[in-house]
């Protein structure tokens, strides 16, 4: 059994991006620049945004954070996005999710210029991916594909079962892996909360990808012997033995499945670090 080390793989990707940015600067181009829009005070979003900014700056990508109060009017946010859309200094625009409930997420995301949509979440980029003509692919699905490639897992012809159909993880993953492209061409089953007999699907997976947001949801009885398990979940679970009073758990019960599977991603240190690395790749792409 092999543990897929997402931290190590992402570090190599980030080093490579840093070299490409240095080359850009040496050739007389300016540094790529990412605009981040953060609305309200959500602890998890603050943490994710800080990590994105820190990693961008480490590789030489400039960032600018635009903060808005949680009660901001939709028109103020869309106005800022429209300004950034045509501003030549910004290559990428990212709106940190989730948004406060009074804001219409789809309407806001769809204002982003698709050429600067480094999260790949506009309807246009979602459609391009679904039509086998990918432009910007969301970072988490792209990171999962990269983890499998780097781990020398052949994807073509495999049966991939995905649990969770969100627009940021499960649905784009199902399009990515079922597309007729290199490192894709899998047979994909996309499961969700209304799926009957989930276990009948998960047990048939050559590669099982879990993104349900339910700690340790998948156990040994739900996986096929020798299969590959990718755990996307990041959940806080109360743990008073830990100084912080909680621990981070995935959607897979790691200890339960570990002796049955051939490869698995840990949480933390699996998919999470890849998401940031792929965001940087998308920013670099948007600047070229
Ligand atoms: P989400 O928007 O809440 O979607 C959860 C999905 O899981 C939904 O499609 C839901 O089905 C499905 N689901 C819920 N219970 C289920 C069940 N019992 N059986 C089958 N499907 C079930 O979540 P998300 O944004 O995709 O995130 C999922 C997890 O991944 C979270 O823990 C999140 O923190 C983590 N995440 C990690 C990264 C990373 O970088 N590692 C990135 C993004 C998200 P319905 O559609 O029917 O409701």
Structure description:
With 288 residues, the protein is α/β, with parallel strands linked by helices. It folds into 2 domains: 28-119, 3-Layer(aba) Sandwich (Rossmann fold), CATH 3.40.50.10860; 139-273, 3-Layer(aba) Sandwich (Rossmann fold). Helices cover 38% and strands 17% of the residues. It has 10 helices and 11 strands. The strands form 3 sheets. Strands 1-11-8-7-5-6 form a 6-stranded parallel β-sheet. A 3-stranded parallel β-sheet has the order 3-2-4, with helices on both faces. A two-stranded antiparallel ribbon has the order 9-10. Helix 1 runs parallel beside helix 10 and helix 6 (139-150) packs across helix 7. The longest helix is centred in the N-terminal third of the chain and has 21 residues, at 6-26. The protein binds NADP nicotinamide-adenine-dinucleotide phosphate. NADP nicotinamide-adenine-dinucleotide phosphate binds at residues 140, 163-166, 168-170, 191-195, 198, 211-214, 232-235, 271-272, 275. NADP nicotinamide-adenine-dinucleotide phosphate is lined by residues 140, 163-166, 168-170, 191-195, 198, 211-214, 232-235, 271-272, 275.
Described by strand count, sense and barrel closure, the largest sheet is: 6 strands, parallel
Beta-strand fraction estimate = 15-25%
Q: What's the total number of strands?
A: 11
Q: Order of SSEs, N→C?
A: EHEHEHEHHHEHEHEEEEHEH
Assign the CATH topology of the largest domain.
Rossmann fold
Named at the architecture level, the CATH assignment of the largest domain is: 3-Layer(aba) Sandwich
Can you tell me the number of structural domains?
Answer: 2
For the record, what is the CATH homologous superfamily label of the largest domain?
A: NAD(P)-binding Rossmann-like Domain
Instruction: Tell me the distance between the termini.
Output: 40 Å
Basic shape: globular
> How much is the average pLDDT?
97
> What percent of the residues sit in helical stretches (DSSP H or I)?
25-40%
The CATH class of the largest domain turns out to be: Alpha Beta
Low-confidence stretches: none
